[in-house]
Structures are given as structure tokens and as C-alpha cells.
């Protein structure tokens, strides 16, 4: 019965008709549809029914995200080019980088672990930073191209796979265990990676996806002129 009712609506495209009001939001907890008031920078709008946080207007979000992403990109390059760890046993010393460790694990027959470390500690953080760097540059002059929206979706997935802090924790546990057998020399990359963990957290906390989405071109291009959020974003830039 309900399927018969839904079919003609879907065919006529009624369910895809956009509502030109970017202030309309649905509460993530109780699903109440409501209009966001003017929220001053640094303030938070809460749901009228359940008090869940609807949106926090972050101050100068896009510029700060861009600055943090540039800093994070530089730190990631440094972290992967200088030694992370050195060992000294009976007068013999050796040191390795993150990628050197991955190669050593690969040669040792632990290809699965090597691939996981490479992806979660190098590739995913690099893509996460690249995503935000590209988005914060692309949305500076609205309307931002459609690929900015694709990157915004990809960023959420990549964030979950970026696990530098887990790798650092693993390295620290191994260091404590090996400290009785050899002299351990922490390399510059250890400190850089430690800083990068905080920088990535700050970058994620500063970024406001709502602000970025408001500047992305609509799939149906004719809606652009009618979207008030976009018009306001364009005015802010002037
Ligand atoms: Zn609610």
C-alpha cells in the first residue's frame, strides 16, 4: 500500500525539489526541522526540543583551516624524510624512517601489517590534509566546483583511517620493551609526528563543513542564484 503511494511521488520528482532556505536544519538527534537564527561567531545554536548542538559558528573557519592544513602538510613531509628511531647495540648503530620501517616489515614477510602501516600512517593522513587543503582553496571564490563536494565527503572517510597516534603509541610501547636490550635514540620524526597529531586534531576542530558546503555549486546549476547562503558567502568575500 505504502509502496503504491511512494512510486508516483518519486516518478514526478517531487522528493528532489530543493527548498531554498539554507537556514533550515534537521536536528541530528530528534529530527526536528527548524530554522537557524543569526548565530554570532563563536556561538552555538541548539535544538529547541532536545537541546542537541545544531551548529557552532566557528570564527574564521576557512582561513584557519587553510593555515593549519599548510602547516600539517609541511610537518608530514618532514616526518617522512627524517629518521624516526635509532638503535645502538654493542657499538653498532642503525636508524630508520617511517617508510624504512614499512619496507623492513615487507621484507620480513609481514606484508599485511606493512600495507596497513603505510596506509594509516602515511597515505590516509596525506590524503586527509590534501582534501582539506584543496577544499579550503576551492571554496574561497564561490561557487566552488562540484568536486569540492566530493572531497568533503571523502574527507570524513579519510579522517577515520588516519591513525598516526596509534602508530606512535605502538612505537612507544615497543621502545619501552626494547630499552633493556639496546640504547634507543628517538629521532626528529617522533617529535614531528607527535606535533602532527595535535595539528590534525586542531585542523578537524577548526573546519566548518557547513560553511564549505554553502559555497559548493549545486548539481542543478540554475539554483545557484537563488541560494541565499551562497549569495551571502559571495558578499563576504568581496
Ligand atoms: Zn533535537
From TrEMBL:
Residues annotated as transmembrane: 66-93, 113-139, 160-179, 185-207
UniProt keyword terms in alphabetical order: Membrane, Transmembrane, Transmembrane helix
Domain of life: Bacteria
Pfam families noted in UniProt: PqiA
InterPro entries the record matches: PqiA-like
Record's protein name: Paraquat-inducible protein A
Amino acid at each position: 500500500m505504502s509502496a503504491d503511494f511512494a512510486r508516483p511521488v518519486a516518478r514526478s520528482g517531487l522528493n528532489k525539489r530543493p527548498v531554498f532556505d539554507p537556514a533550515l536544519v534537521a536536528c541530528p538527534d530528534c529530527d526536528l526541522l527548524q530554522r537557524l537564527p543569526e548565530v554570532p561567531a563563536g556561538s552555538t545554536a541548539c535544538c529547541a526540543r532536545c537541546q542537541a548542538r545544531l551548529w557552532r559558528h566557528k570564527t574564521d573557519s576557512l582561513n584557519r583551516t587553510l593555515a593549519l592544513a599548510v602547516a600539517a602538510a609541511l610537518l608530514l613531509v618532514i616526518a617522512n624524510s627524517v629518521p624516526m628511531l635509532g638503535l645502538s647495540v654493542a657499538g653498532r648503530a642503525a636508524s630508520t624512517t617511517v617508510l624504512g620501517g614499512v619496507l623492513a616489515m615487507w621484507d620480513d614477510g609481514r606484508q599485511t601489517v606493512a600495507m596497513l602501516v603505510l596506509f594509516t600512517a602515511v597515505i590516509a593522513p596525506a590524503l586527509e590534509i590534501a582534501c582539506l587543503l584543496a577544499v579550503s582553496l576551492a571554496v574561497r571564490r564561490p561557487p566552488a566546483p562540484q568536486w569540492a563536494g566530493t572531497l568533503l565527503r571523502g574527507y570524513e572517510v579519510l579522517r577515520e583511517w588516519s591513525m598516526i597516534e596509534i602508530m606512535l603509541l605502538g612505537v612507544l610501547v615497543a621502545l619501552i620493551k626494547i630499552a633493556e636490550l639496546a640504547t634507543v635514540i628517538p629521532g626528529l620524526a617522533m617529535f614531528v609526528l607527535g606535533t602532527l597529531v595535535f595539528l590534525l586534531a586542531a585542523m578537524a576542530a577548526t573546519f566548518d563543513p557547513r560553511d564549505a558546503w554553502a559555497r559548493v555549486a549545486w548539481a542543478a546549476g540554475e539554483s545557484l542564484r537563488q541560494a541565499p547562503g551562497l549569495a551571502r558567502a559571495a558578499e563576504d568575500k568581496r
